């Protein structure tokens, strides 16, 4: 089976490469990384694999998304960010709520 090479980047800038199958989901990857936490990432160790989140092209990946579904290229390195977060942001809800509170719109006034 062909593997996908993922380079995971922590907020601290530390990176590590892992090989995964296209059938692996974001949750599988988080668990694998947690179970095989790199020695030089010791300072960033988290308490549970359930709070590890992958970010790909600026988007949080939900746990059930597989690498195959993202159509990642084989034989090339794909870069993702790995962050610790309890919950994923709901799509668009945060920005919506903030705008309602302040009553501001996204329009610009050009002088």
From TrEMBL:
InterPro entries (UniProt xref): MUB, Ubiquitin-like_dom, Ubiquitin-like_domsf, UBL3-like, UBL3-like_ubiquitin_dom, UBL3_Ubl_met
Query: The Ubiquitin-like domain covers which part of the protein?
Result: 4-82
Q: Which Gene3D superfamilies match?
A: Phosphatidylinositol 3-kinase Catalytic Subunit, Chain A, domain 1 (3.10.20.90)
Q: How does it sit in the membrane?
A: Lipid-anchor
Q: Does the keyword Cell membrane apply?
A: yes
Q: Where in the cell is it found?
A: Cell membrane
Any one Gene Ontology cellular component term annotated for this protein? plasma membrane
Cell membrane as UniProt keyword: yes
The main place the protein resides is membrane
Q: Which PANTHER family match?
A: UBIQUITIN-LIKE PROTEIN 3 (PTHR13169:SF0), UBIQUITIN-LIKE PROTEIN 3 HCG-1 PROTEIN (PTHR13169)
This one is known as Ubiquitin-like protein
Supply the source organism for this entry. Hirundo rustica rustica
